[in-house]
Amino acid sequence: MLDLLLVETVNGIVSGLILALVASGLTLIFGIMDVVNFAHGELFMLGAYVGTSVVLATGSFWLALGLASLTIAALGAVIQVLALRPLLGRDPLTTILATFGLSLVLQNYALWQYGPVARKIPEPFTGQFPLFHLQYPWYRIIIAGLSAAIIGGLWLFLKYGKYGIWIRATTQDRVMAAAMGIPVPRVHTLVFAIGAAMAAASGVLFGPLVGVNHAMGLDVILRAFIVVVVGGMGNLGGSILAAIFISLLEAIASLWVSPAQAVIASFVVLILTLLFRPTGLFVPTPK
Amino acid sequence: MLTLSDVHAHYGKSHVLHGVSLRVAPGEVVGLLGRNGVGKSTTLKTILGLVRPSAGRVVFEGRELTGAPPHRVAREGIGWVPEDRRIFRLLSVQENLRTGLDRPGMTPARRAALLEKVYRHFPVLRERRTQTGGTLSGGEQQMLAIARAMMLEPKIILLDEPTEGLMPRMVAQIREIVELLRAEGVAILLVEQNVPLTLAVSERVYVMEKGTVRHEAPAEALRHDASVLHQYLGV
To answer: Do B152 and A184 touch (CB under 8 A)?
Structure first.
């Protein structure tokens, strides 16, 4: 029993880190623009599809990861400029409708372009190592490490980079940031592009585990939204902790119930959070 | 240097500015007095591009700023110290200052020199440079707000009620800072409720009422005869 618990703990941390990668893009975008991006799952899915195309053409997983991130970052920038920038300052409902509409468009585009049959991104590493009596795939450890590295890179960028400081200032006070000469519209576009690139990167990393199809974004985005709410809307550190917490909970719950039922644990946490700590579990109690 | 001609502004349907005209010459300290809600802060926001004028023009050093986005106005050399200070509370003191430093055309040497100059004027900010803005006292936040505006190397600073809620000792310090900025040739448009302070530091004073400028006079004249101020401000 103890070894099973440990294996599930490893599983929980691994999927938690991937989930954190998706959720941090989502929460970054919400934090700075108050935009709840319902098309985030579709950016994740399109990233995975671009990844399959690049792998097919070049055979390189790493090239696929890089190119998919860049392509979807560019797509994200275009989406922000064309669909979201004109809505800035309006009722949040309008951006929810806009991104929801975009998600439908992107999903159906993928269905039309790539067809209904799931594709697969081959794992770049097929090796396994013994974890107690199980063989644990190296690839899962690698993607967890890569997710952590990308999140760490984002943190360093936000902490020390010129654009990082602009992003944090704009998140806290958009008006004052503009009055300090920070080009706020450009910062918004940049953040949306970064969020999109992170979604795409997780799509490619996740591709070998789940298979790539036009609806793959739905499941991930649902969990990402739970994480963003539980972690505190717009709170990056909170989202990362919440992603790991929720994934651990689900992994450990799946020892007793089926994985489909384990999802219930996440919803219980979500509902309890909304009832008792609506500003998020991992933020200091607001005064 | 800065000229507003017949500027009108609306918040939604309410007409807030009814044709404000004023000018500030290079290096001049100009006071803007008036009761609460007569449109003083809105006048500043209209200059900054934060409120779009519905009519009239804002011209700065011969360049049209009417309707320009606020980040462009800032980079033209107009600094803003807002009424509620608007410190970036989660950014450290140094990061707050850095928001105005990463401008096009700034070299690392110039950045360091500017930061050093401001820390020399405000030693307390150097002491607290790694603390987050939200942990500073009210007076320190006010100094940070002024220091942050200085990072833009502005030709003019719009100061909105800098002494509001400060202890008398801090008010004296704010006055010193205004004198210091004047000595450096920075023009100031000062919105204040503190009439004696405004008259003491300003060269000229405008008095606003109901969204428009009703009176203009040298501060010197108002120091001797305050009857006009009684009429408009009730002080």
So the answer is: no
Looking at the partner chain, which of A169, A183, A184 has a beta carbon nearest the beta carbon of B91?
A169
d(CA B176, CA B70) in angstroms, rounded, equals: 28
B50 to A180: CB separation less than 8 angstroms, yes or no: no
Closest CA to B195 of B19, B32, B14: B32
CB pairs under 8 A between A and B: 65
Facing B74 at nearest CB: one of A165, A181, A185: A181
Contact: B69, A185; criterion CB under 8 Å: yes
How many domains, in total, are found in chain A?
1
Tokens 């806009």 sit at which residue?
A: A98
- Determine the Cα–Cα distance for residues B164 and B149; give it in Å rounded to an integer: 18
Query: pLDDT tens string for chain A (287 positions)?
Result: 778 888 888 889 988 998 999 999 999 998 888 888 999 999 999 999 999 999 999 989 999 999 999 999 999 999 999 999 999 878 888 999 999 999 999 999 999 999 888 888 888 878 888 877 778 888 888 889 999 999 999 999 999 988 999 999 999 999 999 999 999 999 999 999 999 999 999 999 988 888 899 888 888 888 899 899 888 877 888 899 999 999 999 988 888 888 778 888 888 888 888 888 887 777 665 44
User: Which chain B residues are closer than 8 Å to A166 by Cβ?
Assistant: 99, 102
CA distance A82 to A75: 11
Residue A43: how many other CB atoms lie within 10 Å: 32
Which of B73, B78, B88, B153 is the best mutation test for A, with the most CBs of A within 10 A?
B88
Contacts of B174 (CB under 8 A, 6+ apart): B142, B146, B162, B163, B166, B197
Name the residue among B71, B95, B98 with its Cβ closest to that of A178. B71
In chain A, residues with a C-beta closer than 8 Å to the C-beta of B82 are 176, 179
Tokens representing A186 are 């450009």
Domain assignment present for residue A250? The answer is no
Domain of residue A208 covers 2-214
Domains of chain B: 2-88+154-233 (3.40.50.300)
Residue B112: burial class (beta carbons within 10 Å; 0-12, 13-18, 19+) = exposed
Q: Which of B21, B2, B6, B7 is nearest to B157 (CA)?
A: B2
